Amino acid sequence: QPYAAAFLTCSVKASAADMVVQSSQDDNEKTNNNIINDDTTTTTTTTRDDAPLLLFDMQRNLAFWLYGGVYQGCVQEFVYNKVFPWIFGDSQSWITVLEEVAVDMVFLTPFLCLPVAYLVKAGVAADQCLQDGLERYVQHVQNEGLLFRYWSLWAPVQMLTFGVVPVHLRIPFIALVSFFWIMILSNVSSKESNSTDSSSSSSSSSSSSTATTASSSSTSSTTTEC
What we know:
The protein is mainly alpha-helical. 84% of the residues lie in helices and 0% in strands.
């Protein structure tokens, strides 16, 4: 059952990669809190080690689990081990390998591989629609250099995949390397979430400040009238 094995391997790998990133981000947040506390306190040595951990994002992890299992596992098993041999043959000559890598990088990556990741995440999230996912994908391509990051990692990796690795080991090999790629995607996703939270917090603080100023002005006016 190659598809079942591919789904299991890649889904667990993707979920684990996201867990590692979320755990690392939580540790960094606690460290930053401790540093801020040390810098602003001279008479006490209170630390933030007992502060609550950042909530684990189950929706984000589920999205990576699905993307890993369905696309990176089953779809790539079909495309790389069935469709590519049918189109390009079984030759592992460098010309054939270059053709396969070119098709993968130029067509599959920008129009299937990466958009699917964002569509899955948007589909899992309760507050997003599929259009939000596509817009976010375009934004990350333009502002985060997402495609260049992908090409810089996967172009040489896929040269090995199609030119050296045996067909039956292609998906496990890709799964091994994509553990680190999923961590990159997870970090990009986290930066966006933090930016959104920061903007919301800033808006909330601004609104609160405005309300406080208005209240103070009202109080001052009342006092003057008296």
